[in-house]
Structures are given as C-alpha cells and as structure tokens.
Amino acid sequence: MLLNKWMTALGLGVSLLASTALAAENKIITIASLEWPPYTGAKLPEQGASVAVVKAAFKAMGYELRVNFYPWSRAVELGKNDPGFAGYFPEYFSDQLAKDFELSEPIGTGPLGLAQRKGEGYNWSKVADLASKKVGVVQDYVNTDEFDDRVAKKQQPVDVALDDTKNLLKLGGKRVDLAIVDKNVFNYLMKTDPQLASFQSALEMNPKILEDKKLYICFKKGAKGKEWAKILAEGLKKIDVNAIMQKQLGN
To answer: Which residues belong to the signal peptide in this entry (predicted)?
Structure first.
C-alpha cells in the first residue's frame, strides 16, 4: 500500500515537472535575425537596439525572446519556412510582405538614406531624380515602395551587394554612385568596421533621407503568427520603445 502511494506521488511529481517544463517552453519565442548593428547583432549590448525593444516587450508579457543570427537571406527563409522560428526581423513594410506574413506593430524606426562620396554630393528632390545614378542596394532588402517599384520596372539602375559593408565598399571603390543604407547603420559601420577604415574620411550621408522607416517583425502567416503579433502588441504598450531605442543607439 505504501509503495503504491509512493509510486502514485512520484508519478504525480514527474507529471507536474513535465507540465512545468512544457509551460516554460511555451513561454519562449525564437526569431531569426541578422548582423545589422546597431539594431541587431550577437555581440552588441542587449544584442542591439531592436532586439532590446522586442525582448522588453515580450518580457512584459511573461515571455522570453531568443534570437538566432544568420545572413539576411537565410534569416528571411528560416523565418518564413522553418517551424523552429516564429518569424524574422527587423524588416521594413511592403505590400508583398503584408500578404506573406503577419506583421507586428512597429518596434521602432530607422532613417533610410543614401551614402555618397565626399565632394560628389548629389542634390535630389524626388526618387525619379536618382535614375541617372547607379545605386548600390543590398540583396533581399526592402527599400521604399517607390524606389523598389522603379527598380522592378528597370527605371532605376542598381548594383546588388550581399550586405551593407560590401555595399559601402563598392561606393568607396567607385563601383556605384550612391548606396542605400540606414543612417544609424552607416555611422556604426564607419566607426567600427575595419574593412571601411580607409574610407572613413571619404564617405558621408546625403543630407536628404529617403524615408524614416518603421521597423517590424514578420511573423509566420496564420493563427500562431497572429497570436504572437497580438502578444507583442500588448507588450509594446507596456514599455517606452523610443527610450530603449535611443539608449541603445546612443542618441
């Protein structure tokens, strides 16, 4: 009789531990990202400004965020198709992405602009003015709707790089006339990336930005993605997104 009671108690204890472990596992969300400092990066404080915001928002809702870093195209593919990931980030809005993913509420903003060579400043007022210039872009990055539409219609010459550093190297090497890049990313890379050291005094941002872009998480399409987006939205209401961004960006 005592043995039976002990076995019953042991069974209940094991079941309780299993249930607790499952509940804890269900409170973890894994998202794919890229090395895109100062917004995201494995070795950055808090893993970057955007990660800090999303971690704080999920923490406010009782969830733990885990971020795995990959080259951008791989992060997008994993976020869309791998069941081990809830999605990927940070991303700019596009109509096509809104069809393919459940987009979160904005998790911050970033000023998207054009890097140029000093002494070759270019005055422009509308995107169509850039048609005479070969513009460096990064593979699979969303830029602005108008710019990307003009590229698709072959109205805007571009040269594709694998990442922002390579894009800026092409600009410094005079292989492109301008390079699309987030201003904060440009400033960070020019200060810290040894590959760009020789161009620190040669490159600058054009004073006119393309757009102050809102940043989003792309969750997988479907009910689970909608659930994650809803949880994040509630968490974002509980934190000061701008304060966290500015602290991490050092602005």
So the answer is: 1-23
Question: What is the model's pTM?
Answer: 0.85
Residue 9 predicted with pLDDT over 60: no
The CATH classification of domain 110-212, taken from the options 3.40.50.300, 3.40.190.10, 3.40.50.670, 3.80.10.10: 3.40.190.10
pLDDT at 191 over 60: yes
Q: Is the dihedral of CA 91, 96, 97, 98 positive or negative?
A: positive
How far is residue 163's CA from residue 101's CA, in Å, rounded to a whole number? 23
CA distance 73 to 87: 13
CB 239 within 8 A of CB 60: yes
Listed in order, strand segments (DSSP E) in the chain are 28-33, 64-69, 87-91, 101-103, 109-117, 135-138, 158-161, 178-182, 203-205, 211-214, 216-220
- Cβ contacts of residue 177 below 8 Å, gap of 6+? 116, 120, 122, 133, 134, 135
CA distance 100 to 175: 34
Contact 217, 103 (CB under 8 A): yes
